[in-house]
Amino acid sequence: MVISGCKTDFWLVKTVAALVIAISICLISGLFFRGNPLPILILSLTSAIALSTIDLYYLTNNTIGSVYLLDAVAHLIFTMISMILLMNAKRWRT
Question: What residues contact residue 66 under an 8 Å CB cut-off, 6+ apart?
């Protein structure tokens, strides 16, 4: 809380954390199970877009601190990587 500020809506923090953990488990499982990478790439792309959009929206409304700009940049990097991988997904099909 020192970096990102005081949290007042703990239910929301816990809900977002649970969703991010679920997304992470799906993405990590994609490393271990061979098959069509398309669902994992779509999950990666859409979750990165959603999380960066949320960060940027609330950052511009001065609802959250500027440290979340780093988080948004990280999500945008994941978005670009996911888009590149998605465009090359046809080559990986087994």
Answer: 59
How is residue 6 written in tokens? 């005081």
Q: What are phi and psi of 8, to 5 degrees?
A: -110, -25
pTM of the model: 0.73
- In the chain, what are the domain boundaries? 10-92
Neighbours of 85 (CB within 10 A): 15
pLDDT band, residue 14 (cuts 50/70/90): confident
Per-residue pLDDT, averaged over 24-29, amounts to 90
Alpha-carbon Rg of the chain, whole angstroms? 15
Give me the torsion for CA of 54, 26, 89, 70, rounded to 10°.
Answer: 30
CA torsion sign for 85, 86, 88, 91 is positive
Nearest CA-CA partner of 23 in 54, 61, 49? 49
